[in-house]
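User: Hello! My lab partner asked me to get a predicted holo structure for this protein. The small molecule is 2-acetamido-2-deoxy-beta-D-glucopyranose, SMILES included with the sequence. Please write out the structure tokens.
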Amino acid sequence: MSLFWLLHFSAYLAIASSLIKFEDNDLRHKQDGMYLNLYHVAGLDSYLKSTSPFTFSDMFKKDEDHVRYLHSRLTNNEDVRISGTTSPSGKVRGPKPVSIPLKSAIPLDSGNYYVRIGLGTPAQYFSMIIDTGSSLSWLQCQPCKVYCHDQVDPIFNSSTSKTYKTFPCSSPQCSSLKGSTQNKPGCSRKTGSCVYSARYGDLSFTSGYLSQDVLTLTPSETLPSFVYGCGQENQGLFGKTAGILGLGNDKLSMLAQLSNKYGNAFSYCLPTFYSAPSSKGGFLSIGTSSLTSSPYKFTTLVKFPNKPSLYFVDLTSITVAGSSIGVAASSYKFPTIIDSGTVITRLPMPVYTALKDAFVKIISKKFAQLPGVSILDTCFKGSVKTMSIAVPEIQLIFHGGADLSLKAHNTLIEIENGTTCLAFSVSSRLIPIAIIGNYQQQTIKVAYDVANSKVGFAPGGCQ
Ligand SMILES: *[C@@H]1O[C@H](CO)[C@@H](O)[C@H](O)[C@H]1NC(C)=O
Ligand SMILES: *[C@@H]1O[C@H](CO)[C@@H](O)[C@H](O)[C@H]1NC(C)=O
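Assistant: Hello! Below are the structure tokens for the protein in complex with 2-acetamido-2-deoxy-beta-D-glucopyranose.
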């Protein structure tokens, strides 16, 4: 249970640092680009003294839901019909009440990363998950007409903001929702306000009013008319965060809305699960100026017709300890999404099997194999620490030579004391896709130069 204890230890640090988080955002800004500190939600949850402890099985279950969501976006069932998005009373309604989970049953959103932002005038502050796999930003909003889950910060009360506005159903922003959320907008008959709805996985769902207000990123960096969803019904896998900041490539995403001022680019470094907040902690930086701070190796973003908002890259080979895993170049012709919201990297079966075999061949000389756990089928007797000396470097190599060179902390995950697994899994057998998950991106700086259609990697970005 070493991870468990580490999480609790970091809880103390999180409390100590929570007061300075916002000021830190401002200090970072002075270095280059516009920086927000980025944290792992496991820290947020322990900071709250949650009654539901972190479990890997919850995390993996949620991760599978997220992967299913990405699958559904790649297949044709895009136009997910949500019945009753509008009703004569003007109330927002979503799926049948039977699907509303009990508060205690909401799994922790334990695989994701969040930043702190302010919304409204005067600003109210929130912990928001960053998601490159979706575009519309939203947060829970009073009066929570249907349902809001528990969150760390007081829920946003739009009536107390002097600058809050909703959009009429006839607005162009309302018409843009279909492209951003894959769902047609609804219209409140009572108020004529535009109603959005978005689904993320089997259970995750948000619906509410398309709105606009002042977004405060740092005390000196604000966006006067930020378009986002004011969620009146929010169910599922968002943990104790207030909502999501969408960084997808779509005109309603936060990125696009900030691009006029900062340029159409961002970069981030995801800290490890158990890192203490520190000066080398994670960050999200918006703007083209953040791309020049490190020697990034870039690969071209691949465009997929009809899926312009997701970030696709071209994975060309994988090596283990410098040797190819022996899969023909032609076998890598599947769509590969790079995503901040999926934890464990997924690979199509033939590639996954070859990677696993190459890895086991080396590591099993020193460490005994154990039965698989949940979605991870390759486990060993040992800890990340003891195994890190023997673990071979895995490289994910992309078109043009950019690579993700994975260290032990990107390759292995310690599920319980003495059981450590290869942190890769197989994607759906039906749809061969790959998803580069956030576990494999930890501590590496990742730059999204959206304006020039490329993604780059640089090692040693944070701890
Ligand atoms: C984990 O296992 C090691 C070796 O088996 C042991 O020394 C250590 O005390 C254990 N740690 C915890 C927190 O149980
Ligand atoms: C929201 O703010 C309004 C105006 O200040 C207040 O009347 C209302 O009670 C608040 N709602 C909640 C749930 O706090």
